[in-house]
Design goal:
By secondary structure, the protein is mainly alpha-helical. The chain has a domain of about 60 residues. A hairpin with a 2-residue loop joins strand 1 and strand 2. Helix 2 packs antiparallel against helix 4.
Length: about 130
């Protein structure tokens, strides 16, 4: 109910009322954001890939680093062997272990980034 001195209401509309709207295409990121069942499957697959990579790197490091004490136990001569005046166990534990850990870390990071890039590309295409 308007009074004679109040301004009259005006309805403002877009001049393109008949323009067609782009259809909403569900993407993988939308599925993940909305936490749909498909989004859960996408995330589960990413987590499984990362878990497999983690377990493979850990298993490789355990085999290599766990083999050192086994080497000393099975080949007693390695306990007293010297390399450049240093006992072999010191050389292995003090010098050789670090490059092994570094390489394992580099492999993990490179493959984790590859998995994430592939996942991002896949989800972006969906």
């Amino acid at each position: 109910m308007s009074t004679p001195d109040s301004p009259r209401r005006v309805r403002v509309t877009s001049p393109r009322r008949t323009a067609t709207r782009r259809p909403v295409i569900p993407t993988g990121t939308r599925e993940i954001d909305e936490q749909t069942r498909l989004g859960e499957i996408y995330m589960h697959s990413l987590i499984q890939s990362q878990l497999r990579l983690t377990l493979a790197v850990i298993a490789g490091a355990v085999v290599i680093l766990g083999g050192i004490p086994l080497l000393f136990a099975l080949v007693p001569a390695t306990r007293t062997l010297s390399v450049l005046g240093l006992p072999l166990p010191w050389v292995i534990l003090g010098i050789v272990v670090y490059p092994v850990v570094y390489v394992a870390a580099r492999l993990y990071v490179r493959n984790a980034e590859r998995i994430e890039a592939e996942f991002t590309e896949f989800v972006g295409r969906q």
